Amino acid sequence: MISTNPFDDDHLREECGVFGIFGHDEAAAHTVLGLHALQHRGQEASGIVAFDGQHFNAHRDLGQVADSFASESVIGRLKGHAAIGHVRYSTTGETALRNVQPLFADLEFGGFAIGHNGNLTNAYTLRRELVKRGSLFQSTTDTEVITHLMATTRGSIIDRLTHALLQVEGAYSLVALAKDMVVGVRDPLGVRPLVLGRLGNAHILASESCALDIIGAEFLRDVEPGELVVLDGSGIHSLRPFGTTERRFCIFEYIYFARPDSVVEGSSVYEARKRIGAELARESPVPADVVIPVPDSGVPAALGYSREAGIPFELGIIRNHYVGRTFIEPTDHIRHLGVKLKHNTNRAYIENRRVILVDDSIVRGTTSKKIVEMVRSAGAKEVHMRISSPPTMHSCFYGIDTPEREQLLAANHDVEEIAKIIGVDSLDFISIDGLYRAMGKGRRDPDRPQYCDACFTGDYPTALTDQHDEQPAQLSLLAEMA
Ligand code: SF4
Fold first, then answer.
1. How far apart are alpha carbons 285 and 283 in whole angstroms?
2. Cβ–Cβ < 8 Å for 100, 62
3. 255 lines ligand 1 (CB under 6 A)
4. How far is CA 158 from its chain centroid?
5. Confidence at residue 8, expressed as pLDDT on a 0 to 100 scale
6. What is the CA 370 to chain-centroid distance, rounded?
7. Residue 355 β-bridge partners
8. What is the DSSP letter of 140?
9. What is the spatial distance between Cα 259 and Cα 20, in angstroms, rounded to a whole number?
C-alpha cells in the first residue's frame, strides 16, 4: 500500500517554480530540464504549454518532472519554439489535475497560458466579484483570477495583463505564453524571484539561476520588482507598468527555499547561508567539540558557524537521499521510525563530544526533537542547537506553505521552552538584525525593511484582504467535488 509523504520533514515548503523560453526549436525539452532543476520548489505536479506557431500543446501531470515528462512521445507532442512550465506544491486550491499549471484560457485575442509562483492575498475577494459578474471558474487556484480579469477588459495582451495585475495584491512571479510571445512579470515588491537568461538566440525566464545552468544558458539579470518583460522575435522588451516600487524580497529564500547553487537578487545563496552561519556563531557562541549540520539545508550555515567559531565541522548526520515522498502506509510504529529512514548518525563524530547542531529553521519542532534524540543516543555529551533563521512566529501568505499559527512552535513558546521541548542543552536563533547584517544591510530598519521577513516579524508588506473577508461558499463546494 502506498501513501504520499507520511514523514513530515517539518520545514516550510516553497510552493512553485516557473520557467519560460522563447526562440528555441526544442523549447519544451529545455523546459523539462529547467523544471527538473526547480523541482525543489514543488514536487506535487508539473506542466508545460508550448506554442508551435499555430497551436498550443499542453501536458500536465501529478508527480515529479522526471516521471511526468519521461516519455519521448510526450515531449514530441509539445512542439514549438516557445514554452512555459510550472512545478507546483499546492498553493491555493486542492491538488487536482485541473489546478496543475500552466493554466490555459482561450481569450478574445487567442490562447493564453500562465504559470504563477507566489500567492495573491485578495484572490477570494476578486473571485467572488468575478463570479457575481458571470465568470465561470475551472480551477480553485488564485492564478485563474488573473485570466478572468484579463477576459473582462479590452486592449492588447499586455494592456489586459497589466490591467489585471493592477487589481491583485500579494506576491507573484509569473510566466505567460501567448501567440508569439513569452511574458514574465514580478510583483511590485519582488517577493518571489525571477531571472532572465540567454541561450544562443533564445531568451529564458526562470525562478532561479540553477534552471539556466542546467541548460547551459547565460544568466543575464534578475527581472526587477514591478518589471514586465516580453520575450519575442525581436528580443527582450522591458516595461514598468506599476510605477515606482520598493524591494521586499523573501529573505527566507536565502535561508532555505532557493537552491544553494543559485544566485538570487545578486547574491549567491550558498555564500549568504555561510555568512548567516558566521553571524550566528558571533551572536550565539557555545563551547563545543564539533559543529554538525542537519542535512542538507543546514550545511552551508554550519560551515559558516564552524569557521567563525574555530570548531571542527563534521557530517555527523547522514541523509538517505533515496527516501521518496511515497512510502509504505505509515503505521504508528513506522511513522516513529520515519526520521531514521531519512537520517542516520555518524557515531564516530558524536560519541563523547559536545555537539552544536545547526539547522535552518524550527517549524513544529517534530523533526528537531527526533534528531536530538538520535544524536543523544549516539553518545553525545552535550547537544546545543543553533538556528540560522529567527523564530518562525507568523504564517506566510505569499506562496509558502506554513502551518496554522497554533502549530508554529515559536508562536506559542519562548526559546527556553522550545529548548526543553526538543531536548537540547541550549538553543538559539539568529536575531533579525543579525540576519540583516549577514545580508550586508546593517540593522533592520523597521520603517523601511529591505526584505519581506513577515514570518519572523509579522510585518506583512501588502494588504491581506482575504484574511478579513468571508470566503465564498462555492469555493469550498468546488474543493469537495474535486
Ligand atoms: Fe518569505 Fe516569510 Fe515573507 Fe513568506 S512571510 S514571503 S516565507 S519572508
1. 6
2. yes
3. no
4. 26
5. 47
6. 25
7. 290, 383
8. S
9. 19
Question: Is the shortest distance between the CB of 124 and ligand 1 below 6 Å?
Answer: no
- Test site for ligand 1: of 13, 120, 173, 191, most ligand atoms within 8 A of the Cβ: 191
The catalytic residues are 16
What does pLDDT average to over the chain?
A: 91
CA distances from 85 to 17, 28, 100, 103 (A): 8, 8, 10, 10
Tell me where in the chain the CATH 3.60.20.10 domain(s) lie.
13-248
Determine the Cα–Cα distance for residues 482 and 478; give it in Å rounded to an integer. Answer: 6
Which CATH code for domain 268-441?
3.40.50.2020
The answer for 473, left when phi > 0, alpha when psi is -120 to 50, beta otherwise, is alpha
- Residue 390 to residue 398: CA distance in whole angstroms: 18
The total number of residues shown for the chain amounts to 482
3-state helix, strand, coil in the chain (%, to 5): 30, 25, 40
Order of strands, sheet of 228-232, starting from the edge strand that comes earlier in the sequence: 103-107, 110-120, 170-178, 181-186, 228-232, 235-239
Pocket test residue of 252, 388, 395, 435 for ligand 1, highest count of atoms within 8 A of CB: 252
Q: Which residue intervals of the chain bear CATH 3.40.50.2020?
A: 268-441
As assigned by CATH, the class of the 13-248 domain is alpha beta
Distance 397 CA to ligand 1 centre (A): 8
354-395: per-residue pLDDT in tens? 999 999 999 999 989 999 999 999 999 999 999 999 999 999
pLDDT at residue number 324: 56
Alpha-carbon distance 425 to 156, whole Å?
A: 62
How far, in Å, CA of 136 to CA of 138, rounded?
A: 7
Could you tell me whether strands 195-199 and 218-222 are parallel, antiparallel, or unpaired per DSSP bridges? Answer: antiparallel
Q: Which residue type is seen at 412?
A: N
